[in-house]
Amino acid sequence: MTAQRSSVFPRSRTLIHPGAFNPVRIQSRLSQRARHVRLALQPGTSLFDGLVAPLLSLGIQSASMTILGGYFRALQYCVAPPDPTHEAVIRYSEPIDAGPAYMVFGNATLGKDMTGGAIVHCHAAIRTAQGASKGGHIITQSAIVGPQPVSVLATSLDGFDLRVAFDPETNIALIQPLQESHHE
């Protein structure tokens, strides 16, 4: 039966990072306080603007978000195949145009890019107008909310910053929890 299973279920790819091994697999920080916010992203708004503007207006600069699903009149995403140069394990593809699509479910993170500006990193499962199920890294600036508001649950991560920083093990820039800085 084991031989039969191996032919039915292919072995998952093994990912080996190019940099020095870091024995701490998950970088984490504890937030002593948090605020929970429900957002309704308005039609015609980009996913980026619909998330960033209201959270920043509340003084929230780092957050974890759940997108509860909704229609987008335009949506682009990327996937992360193996990096052909082997400089990193993955390399994001060029944006893939899904056109009008329904976001079944998504998770997003609000943090700061390397210059201190807002960044939203989002992964989601979508269904295209043609009925195909897709998923990957959503291009939040070009994901435009469709005819109905899209509900989002956000939890602030107060007491530390989420910042993009170079990670020597993966050889790419990643969002990482860092000690709280004085907010710009």
What are its keywords?
184 residues, mainly beta, ten-stranded antiparallel beta sheet, two-stranded antiparallel ribbon, 2 helices, 41% strand
> Strand fraction band?
35-45%
Largest sheet: 10 strands, antiparallel
Structural Rg:
18 Å
Number of DSSP helices? Answer: 2
How far is the first residue's CA from the last residue's CA? 60 Å
Low-confidence stretches: none
The count of strands amounts to 12
Order of helices and strands: HEHEEEEEEEEEEE
**Anisotropy-based shape:** globular
Structural class based on helices, strands and sheet pairing: mainly beta
Mean pLDDT over the residues:
88
- Helix % is under 10%
Describe the protein in words:
The strands form two sheets. Strands 1, 2, 3, 4, 5, 6, 7, 8, 9 and 10 form a ten-stranded antiparallel β-sheet that branches. The chain contains two helices and twelve strands; from the N terminus they run αβαβββββββββββ. It has 184 residues and is mainly beta. Helices cover 10% and strands 41% of the residues. β11 and β12 form a beta hairpin.
